[in-house]
Automatic annotation (TrEMBL):
Name of the featured protein: Surface layer protein A domain-containing protein
Recorded superkingdom: Bacteria
Keyword Signal: yes
UniProt keyword annotations, A-Z: Signal
Signal peptide per UniProt: 1-27
Organism per entry: Paenibacillus thiaminolyticus (Bacillus thiaminolyticus)
Length: 100
């Protein structure tokens, strides 16, 4: 009988220790999340813009269409497509802003 009581007390002690460990895990999981957000959606885009001779051809432009935003850089030197008219090709990665 003393063995059964001793085993029961030991079992209850082990059970209590295992629950006290669980509270530590809960406390660790209650740490506030980081303010850094991972952007889930991204894509690579290429855009062509046209300029007249004398207009400033920028090396970087801002892309903002249908919730997609980003900076595009001049992918290659501008090409004169007709006399006085230039084509500039920009490319880069843009990100989807689901809150827009």
């Amino acid at each position: 009988m003393k063995k059964i009581v001793a085993i029961s007390v030991l079992s209850l002690s082990l059970l209590a220790v295992s629950f006290s460990g669980a509270s530590t895990v809960l406390a660790a999981s209650s740490i506030p999340k980081s303010p850094i957000t991972t952007l889930a959606k991204q894509k690579f885009v290429t855009v062509k813009k046209y300029y007249k001779t004398g207009e400033s051809i920028r090396t970087q432009i801002t892309y903002a269409e249908n919730g997609w935003y980003g900076k595009l850089t001049l992918a290659k030197p501008p090409v004169e497509i007709t006399k006085g008219h230039w084509e500039a090709t920009y490319s880069g990665t843009v990100y989807y802003d689901h809150e827009s």
